[in-house]
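can u do me a favor
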């Protein structure tokens, strides 16, 4: 199954919204845990920890945005 998004590109629609939300939450929790762990391990000591810390921060932002985008927003009725 596939649908078209706003840009006209097709995207898979096989997963339910609940499953997508769950995956986004798991991703956020995992990347946050990794971010905290690498932060406590003194990232200045090794280049690998620095990179892991940086990329887990990027992952947290990405998963957070994905989670945010899965919730429908009600149109505001303003004047």
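np, heres the sequence
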């Amino acid at each position: 199954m596939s649908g078209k998004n706003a840009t006209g590109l097709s995207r898979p629609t096989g997963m339910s919204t609940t499953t997508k939300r769950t995956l986004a939450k798991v991703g956020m929790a995992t990347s946050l845990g990794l971010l905290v762990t690498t932060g406590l391990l003194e990232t200045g000591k090794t280049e690998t920890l620095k990179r892991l810390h940086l990329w887990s921060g990027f992952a947290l932002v990405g998963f957070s945005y994905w989670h945010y985008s899965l919730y429908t927003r009600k149109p505001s009725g303003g004047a």
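Residues 17-40 form the longest helix (24 residues). hope that helps!!
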